[in-house]
Design a protein that fits this description.
This protein has 134 residues and is an alpha+beta fold. The protein has one domain: YjbQ-like (Jelly Rolls), CATH 2.60.120. Helices cover 25% and strands 37% of the residues. It has a five-stranded antiparallel beta sheet with strand order 1-8-3-5-6, with helices on one face. A three-stranded antiparallel beta sheet has the order 2-7-4, sandwiched between helices. β5 (97-103) and β6 form a beta hairpin. The radius of gyration is 15 Å and the shape is globular. The relative contact order is 0.38. It binds zinc ion (ZN). Residues 80, 82, 84, 88 line the site of zinc ion. Zinc ion (ZN) is lined by residues 80, 82, 84, 88.
Length: 134
């Protein structure tokens, strides 16, 4: 891996879940040694995503997953033979990356915000690529 980059390995345990990875991103930003810049968070997968939202009340992530299930129901007239079209659609809606500001060595997040790896087709091993640019 080039300098200021890191690959996280995250094991998901359910078909669909949102895993708070804020502390892992925060730790990496600290160890990268760059105090002011941006931190990029990216998942190289087509059936998971990266989302920033509330990490205080776990019902928020449950509601988000429920709402995504309404947008991309388990069964519909999908063409993709793998049978995981809902996961591909949810990944497309959520997106596979986020860019955060880094100031004075700290990740800039709101009080209630956390960074989540969203699993839509688990359980699997997922990679998260991080890069800090100063
Ligand atoms: Zn597929």
């Amino acid at each position: 891996m080039p300098a200021h980059m890191k690959e996280l390995s995250v094991r998901t345990s359910q078909r669909e879940e949102m895993i708070d990875i804020t502390h892992l991103v925060r730790d990496f930003a600290k160890e990268a040694g760059i105090t002011d810049g941006i931190c990029h968070v990216f998942v190289p997968h087509t059936t998971c995503g990266i989302l920033i939202n509330e990490n205080a009340d776990p019902d928020v992530t449950r509601d988000i997953l429920d709402a995504l299930r309404v947008l991309a129901p388990a069964t519909a007239n999908y063409r993709h033979v793998e049978g995981n079209s809902p996961a591909h659609i949810k990944s497309s809606l959520v997106g596979c990356s986020k860019t955060l500001m880094l100031a004075n060595g700290r990740l800039c997040l709101g009080t209630w915000q956390g960074i989540f790896l969203c699993e839509f087709d688990g359980p699997r091993h997922r990679k998260v690529w991080l890069q800090v640019v100063g």
